[in-house]
Amino acid sequence: MQNITIKDIAKALDLSYSTVSRALKGSYKISEPVRNKVIAYANEHNYRPNLLAQSLKNKNSRCIGVVLCNIPNSFFAEVISGIESVAYTKNYLVIITQSHESYEREIQALENLTWRSIDGLLISLSTETSDCSHIAALHAKGLPVVFFDRVSEDFKTHLVKADNEGGAYDLTNHLLHQGYRRIAQITSPAHLSITQERIAGYKKALSEAGQPIDESLIKYCEHGGMLFEEIETAVSELFDSGNPPDAIFAASDRLTLGTLSILKKMGKSIPGDIGMAGFSNFSEPELFEPALTTIKQPAFEMGKTAAELLIQLIESKRPVTEFEKKVFPTELKARASTNRKISVAY
């Protein structure tokens, strides 16, 4: 089927080309009855805007590039849905690439995206990325950039993230109130923003409870659990120490799944032998055995907001000099994996 054009609609309704064009864009200069008539006719006859023609005219591609660590991840799957919900309504195409936690692949992904003339970039840094000069260089050349989740403040732009410190604080407090005292955290590399914030919340809760902070209970996985062996090493070190933890707080979806798998191979009973909780966005944590205590992030809303901010940058008629840091609250979902059936006051 050949799509009708603005000229076809104008001829059919005996209106000018400019009137139809403005009506389709929702212009206030066109009366509501005329707008409604144009839109109804366009919908009835399957009108679709010619994005290629628009991009050539406006010198943009109407494409947004997204770089993240990996798609088979509950959190990032929800983020992508949020991004696409906005892009769809604004007629932008979303091109998603994966760094697989590699700095080199992140650079390659950016080169591939910019070669395709994207209008803007949404990025969550890989675990290997401590230097953002490759992103700063693109930003300095005029590419709109918005960071989400794993963010950098190396240059000024919009940042979208969860309240990582608050979530870690709430989860650690929950474990303390359940009677756990030697609480380990298995987390990502120390240089990442999410790692620093989640450790800060964990330490704050321990300090307020008068509990000593044992650095040996914090295990860093340099690839964020992308390599299963690094989770195995972290868990083994915790249990081979002679003074093992009584609870483990895993700081991401992947780290949580890996830790659960290893504990079950070791024959550990949860929560009988050890409590287990995760900073996770699993769609059905109740289906785990036992049901898993989690800190849930509003991933869809984060993706939606990041896309909205990026499109605002892309479509702004003037240089943007003021940027927002959007921090979304997290939610503690206490379930059986941390239930000792006691509440300890301190």
Automatic annotation (TrEMBL):
- Matches recorded under PROSITE patterns: HTH_LACI_2
* Record Pfam families: LacI (PF00356), Peripla_BP_1 (PF00532)
UniProt entry tagged with the keyword Methyltransferase: no
Q: Decide whether keyword Iron-sulfur is in the record.
A: no
InterPro entries registered for this protein in UniProt: HTH_LacI, Lambda_DNA-bd_dom_sf, Peripla_BP/Lac1_sug-bd_dom, Peripla_BP_I
UniProt KW keywords:
DNA-binding, Transcription, Transcription regulation
The HTH lacI-type domain is annotated at 4-58
What is the protein name for this chain? LacI family transcriptional regulator
Organism of origin is Flavihumibacter stibioxidans
